[in-house]
Design goal:
It is built from 15 helices and 23 strands. With 739 residues, the protein is an alpha+beta fold. It has four domains: 125 residues, no CATH class; 195 residues, Beta-Lactamase, CATH 3.30.450; 111 residues, Beta-Lactamase, CATH 3.30.450; 134 residues, Beta-Lactamase (2-Layer Sandwich), CATH 3.30.450. Strands 1, 2, 5, 6, 7, 8 and 9 form a seven-stranded antiparallel beta sheet that branches. A six-stranded antiparallel beta sheet has the order 12-11-10-15-14-13, with helices on both faces. A six-stranded antiparallel beta sheet has the order 18-17-16-21-20-19, with helices on both faces.
Amino acid sequence: MSLINERELKGLLADSKLNLTDQDGSDDYAFLEETVLPTLLPSLAQLLERVEQKEQHAAENTPPFNPIRWLAESLMRHHPEGGAFEHRHAYGAALARIAEQRKEARLGREKTREEEKRKAEEAEVLKQKEQVAEQERARAEKAEARRKAAAALEEEKRKAGELAVEKAMKGDDRVDMVLEFRAKMVEFLEKEVDFRKEDDTSRVNTHLHKMSCELVVSHTAASFASAADLVGEEEEQILFVHTAADKKEAVVEEEEEAPEDDGLGEEFSKAPKIAPPPEISTRSLPPLSDDTAYVLRRGQGVSWPAVDEAKAILITDTKYTEGTLFFDGEKRQGTYAAVCLYREGKPYGILAADTLDSMTGKELIMSDVELMGAIAVVLGEGLDLAASSLAQARRQAHTEKIEGLSEGPSTLPKQIAEAVVAGIGSIVQGREIAVGVPDTKEVMRLLYVADAAGNVTQDETMNERTDSSERASLMFEAASSGELAAVRDDAGGFLSVAVPVTDKQHQVCAVFYVAASPHPKPLSEDANDFIQTVAQIASPVLLAPSASAMRVLGILAQAGCGDSAPLFDAAAQLAERHSGGNGVLIGLCHGADEVRLVKTSGSYTTGKATAGRGDMPVCFQAIDKAMFMTEENATFVPIFSPPPVGHSKAIGVIAIAGPPLDDAAREAAEGVASALTSALSEADFRRKLTVCGGKALASLRKQAPGIKGGFFAFYDVSGRMLCADTVGEPIQGVFVPKP
């Protein structure tokens, strides 16, 4: 046989049907080129020649020839790694040279491929960084645009307020006084009130109402002024009078006196008596819950047209006007005025004044009513500003809190879910709010839910097939599409909304839900922006199943000093949750043919401490082969020991009872097993180090009698110290926590 060349060698390998784009196929191809062919082909050629010679010179006394034995001996003699007659003939040497060239070419290709892979990974990392940076820029630009829009809106409101005041005053020279009052009110809200410390605006609103009532009695003929809010819905509405101001004026009686002589023969008169300034006081009236509260039901009194018809009221003779109602039950002579108070462009209450207790006989006139209208405009503006300032302070406070939790290394999903629900609930009150995470394609776990009344439920499950509620419909729609899902009103506003939380791979990891209010009202733009901002902030904690398992088990592993029981409990819960199975078994190898059962649940619950190979043959196949295995009603996921480079060995298994897993559930189960591997490594390290640390401290005390006591500690993921062991006398403030 002639020497084989590279072209012929390629021809010999052409029928190997190897997929050269596959890494395993490439390795097989290289093994054939570099190891098998340089040895096997020359030996086969020699074997063929020997067989032909034996057939030509066969004789009766010729010893028998065993071709298989001869081939085996030849392969051993010419083995490329230390054979006795390596490359003795030109044929084998030629193949070896070709193989060496092919090996060099292969290594070059692998190096190029690794370099391309590294560049691709770097490009992907750079792309992700750019995406994150772009998202941050977009977020910052959006925030800046909103800030500018808010500033422009405030300026527009300010100008509109000034115009409204001037219009209400109709050229009255008291316009400057009202604008000064407006500036004083704004200064109070912006500089004297810390809305971060306010639970609501009731205290601030009371102060603003008192300021307004005081201004009315100070600059009009009124002896009494009051503010009332419109409370209730439709026909059940009432006017609740909650704030009042009183003015008591002293009456100066002039006496006729004879002129006096100044001693120089000239007479003079005494200067007239000057009345002291009126005594003005403000007060809060009994609350609505009190039996003595001042309320006007619809149809009572004469004030309702101020609200219903948005017109100012001036009554010049209260005693003889039909329909007037006095809280003390006595009709008295006087004048009465009322103007409508608006908030956000809608009637909210009234600002009223009268002269029933006036001692001077002065009466309210139309210019006083115009002044009250201007004061009502300023008061409504101040109440709106207080509400928006409180909402902004709440948004900022809750955003900072959720950011802190998101950045905290020890934050668990349920903790941030609670903070998210509390934050959204403070902005959109009177609505149901929920945070859910997908367990499987059809099941979502509601980590934290607060209904419209504030009642809380946790860890409920919601099935897409059986739950037909609006909440389920919107949340599953958002989870499957990765887009916001909402029920809108005719104007396009969001009545109820579900917002997805996505990771860097754009996989939906959680969904926030805000229900419609009892009296349908669209969410404000600020509320929508807050919900979507919080969805971005919470994404480092609300993760996909595999990443979430790694985070949760990692936190638990570093929250203890070597106890692995919490890890098995959490891993079993996660595996069952994300697989939809009806039972979980976690076993660790205990010899070659037995596993120690460290956790069982559901259909796998048993009183046994171990299980043998005969009890669970497929389970042991998964361990032996270190690979994912399934049977009719169970799935087995191996648990690996932390391997050295290039080697993996199964040390246990997670068995999940139930039908075969789909791709997403399998990925989640393998993610739980991988997270458990990492967590067990940390727990085992801490357990061993605790033993060593205790012995080291005991030895140190023996060698240094002056040491009375000591302790050995670890740190958790947040940097808190966990005492693992103590020796000697107790140390104040140091103790070993119970497992």
